[in-house]
Every structure is written in structure tokens, then in C-alpha cells.
Amino acid sequence: MPDAEILDMTRFDLLNELPDSPDASIPSQNRERHRLRRLAVRRHEAARLMGVSVSTWRRWERSEAIPASLTVGRVALWSMRTLRVWMEWGCPSRRAFEAMEAAKE
After folding, report:
1. How far apart are the first and last CA of the chain?
2. Is 8 contained in some domain?
3. Does position 8 have pLDDT exceeding 80, yes or no?
4. Domain-located, residue 70
5. Number of domains composing the chain
6. If DSSP codes are grouped into helix, strand and coil, which group holds residue 16?
7. In a domain, 54, yes or no
8. What's the count of helices (H) and strands (E) in the chain, helices before strands?
9. Around Cβ 49, how many Cβ atoms within 10 Å?
10. Distance CA 15, CA 75 (A)
11. Do the domain assignments include residue 5?
12. Scanning 34, 41, 82, 87, which has its CA 20 to 30 A from the CA of 15?
């Protein structure tokens, strides 16, 4: 698990921040804007949500302390649902998280 001191969950409460994060605004024909919910975030956005630097997020990636990313082209993405569940379950290591997900299904 990432260091609790580094991961300040009171400052960046992922569970409260994620549902309100719009992905983009798309103008409709009547010029009103519709907000879409984010399905995935890039590395720098995931790090910001967790309250850590991108270099810390990369270090956690290498040590498998965070959930696995999905790669689209050359971009690493993390599912918002996966990050939300990971936080709810106490930020376990990747292997523990994957085992918990498998047991849940």
C-alpha cells in the first residue's frame, strides 16, 4: 500500500471528487452544454486525484502498488470505477486488489 503520509485521503477525497468531474462539454444544437462523466483518467490526473506527484504515481506503477492501467496507443489510462473501488478497499497492492476483484465476481 502506498504510504499513508503521502496519500492524504482527507485532502483529495477521491470518492467525492470523481462523480462530479466532467470529462468534456459538448455543445448541442440549442447551445446548451451537456456534461459527460469521465470514464478514465491519464497518469497526471490520477496522481492529482490521489494528491501525489506524477513521479510518485510512476514509482507506485513500477512497484505494482496501484491498479493496472489500460493502454490506448501510447497513453496509460486508469478506469475511474477501478480507482474508486481501489480507494474504497483501502488502496491494496495490485495483486491483492486483483484477487479481491476476482473473489467478488
Report:
1. 23
2. no
3. no
4. yes
5. 1
6. helix
7. yes
8. 5, 5
9. 21
10. 24
11. no
12. 34
The beta-carbon contacts of 57-64 under 8 Å, at least 24 apart in sequence, are 60/2, 64/93, 64/94, 64/95
pLDDT tens profile 31-81: 455 566 779 999 999 999 999 999 999 999 999 999 999 999 999 999 999
Residue 25, C-beta contacts closer than 8 angstroms, at least 6 positions apart: 33, 34, 35
Q: How far is CA 67 from CA 3, 27, 32, in A?
A: 15, 34, 36
C-alpha closest to that of 36 among 45, 27, 44, 48 = 27
Q: Give the three-state DSSP class for 90.
A: coil
3-state secondary structure of 66: coil
**Separation of alpha carbons 27 and 36, rounded Å:** 11
pTM summary value: 0.67
Q: Which of 102, 101, 91 is nearest to 12 (CA)?
A: 91
Rounded Cα gap, residues 21 and 32, in angstroms: 18
